[in-house]
Amino acid sequence: MANPIGPIELHVHPGGDLAGQIYRQLLEAILDGRLRPGERLPPTRDLADQVGVSRNTVTVAYDRLSAEGFLTARTGAGTFVCPRHLIHERPRAAPPGPGLRPRPLWESLAAEYAPDPPEEVRYDFRPGLPDPELFPLATWRRLIARELRHSAMRAPGYADPAGHPALREAIARYVGMSRSVRAGAGDVLVTQGAQQAIDLVGRVLVEPGDRVVVEEPGYPPARALFQSLGAEVVGVPVDAEGLDVSALPERARVAYVTPSHQFPSGAPLSLARRAALLAWAQRADAVIVEDDYDSEYRFEGRALEPLQSLDRCGRVVYVASFAKSLLPVLRLGFLIAPASLQPALRAAKRLTDWHGDPASQGALAAFIDEGLLARHIRRTTQEYGLRREAVRAALAEHLGGVLEVMPSAAGLHLCTRPAPGARVDMAKGVVRARQAGLLIDSVARFCLREPDRPGLIIGYGLIRREDIGDGVRLLAECLR
User: Fold this and answer.
1) What is the predicted pLDDT for the residue at 89?
2) What pTM does this model have?
């Protein structure tokens, strides 16, 4: 027997056809799917008491819907919505609201970030996505269950917008040891991923008309976020040493950079340019947002000092997340800001969503403190290193002389560009690849303007190692 639906909100106006009003509202609910096939309606007496009409009035409405084939009565069981295909012929829709329009910028962003239609994916080379099969789900479930039993879940009121105290302490220790970031627990603000961290910085610092510097090519969601705040977004080119500091404008409010592993080129910002960037920020009275998005996966050499640890003037906000080391769906990130910005950032976090999920944050604190995160990163780094080498070998075999791999020592993707003398239509190749079930991104998608030498970004976080050779072979066919 189907479960009864909850209370049905009906609006009946006195003086009219009361049974007809009930009939029409129930019919609309059935046709647009709010009342689903097989659901049991309230007894006529209960609905009559709720609406404030006689039981006979509701009975007339039910009888009419039954006669038309929308309801069926079962003796001793109740009245149910019929399981008919007709019920789903009218889609549920919000009122059209003619004349209500968002700002033009948001119309363009809505089109840009519209979800792709579902398609069959054979080979997934999208960048920046870790393999969910490598995530230690059983361990995470155990830690979450422990947090949900904790007495803190019964504490009254809201949590600290800066985040779970134990997680803030764990993050400060972890990035201090693994990345030489100088911070105490009080400097850490836990966020819903790195994107919210960037958003909080923008809310606190950027006013309409302010100039914001981004890398070209660079990370589109950060660029779009600053544009949504009314900023003038200026792209500054990158080369083999990262951001070209000599091309920076004289004045800017914020510079958003990825110095450890430039996205998408993979080039690290050289030590000389790091010093020059910090000096520029001091002259320009600018704030640097350092997004350290995936440097935990390092396969060659030693990482350079982060800008945050070199900063002596309080100009750097360090941003990172656990989207690459764990899973994006967890929405766990953080920022470390100079003391002068911390009260405002904390207030912005409170106004944005008050606080994150204490259970997930507590579980992550334990995951870090018990050494499980370090162990997980060691294990996944080994696997991703093997995939990275398989991608390099497959590119050399199937696309040698067509694409060349740009130097990169870390992360979950490789950036390629056309080899000297090669003529490749990247845009058409990407379209053909998608049609063949191969997902891959072009460098052009990450640029403010059309690049001189558009290349491809090849991620190896999602694709299985045994599929890499076949996937690159198919990519070669699509490019040719």
Assistant:
1) 53
2) 0.84
Q: What is the pLDDT of residue 1?
A: 43
Print burial letters for 106-128: b (CB count within 10 Å at least 16), e (below 16).
Answer: eeebeeeeeeeeeeeeebbbbbb
Express each pLDDT in 439-468 by its tens digit. Answer: 999 999 999 888 877 899 999 999 999 999
* Residue 374 to residue 157: CA distance in whole angstroms: 34
Using CA atoms, how far apart are residues 68 and 281, in angstroms rounded to an integer? 73
Element (H, E) at 219: none
Which residue spans within 258-359 are E strands per DSSP?
287-291, 316-321, 333-336
Give the burial class of 328: count Cβ atoms within 10 A of its Cβ; 0-12 exposed, 13-18 middle, 19 or more buried.
middle
| Eight-state DSSP code of residue 4 | B
In the block, tokens 């910002």 appear at 269
CA distance 207 to 399: 47
CB atoms within 10 A of CB 351: 11
CB distance 32 to 93 below 8 Å: yes
Q: Strands 211-216 and 232-239: what pairing?
A: parallel
* Alpha-helical segments (H) within 285-341: 307-310
The encoded tokens of residue 227 equal 């544009």
Q: Nearest Cα to 199, choosing from 224, 232, 164, 219? A: 224
For the chain, the first-to-last Cα distance in angstroms comes to 59
Are 199 and 225 in contact, with CB atoms under 8 Å apart? yes
At 459, the amino acid letter reads G
- Minimal CA–CA distance to 222: which of 190, 254, 201, 198? 198
Rounded Cα gap, residues 196 and 187, in angstroms: 17
How do strand 78-81 and strand 71-74 relate by DSSP bridges?
antiparallel
In the prediction, which pLDDT does 450 show?
85
Long-range contacts of 174-179 (CB under 8 A, 24+ apart): 174/368, 174/373, 175/318, 175/320, 175/336, 178/296, 178/374, 179/292, 179/295, 179/303, 179/306, 179/309
Three-state DSSP at 7 gives coil
pLDDT score, position 93: 58
- φ/ψ of 188, rounded to 5, equals -95, 135
**Residues of the chain predicted below pLDDT 50:** 1, 85, 87-88
- Cα–Cα dist 115/321, whole Å: 23
pLDDT value for 470: 97
Q: How far apart are CA 5 and CA 13, in angstroms?
A: 24
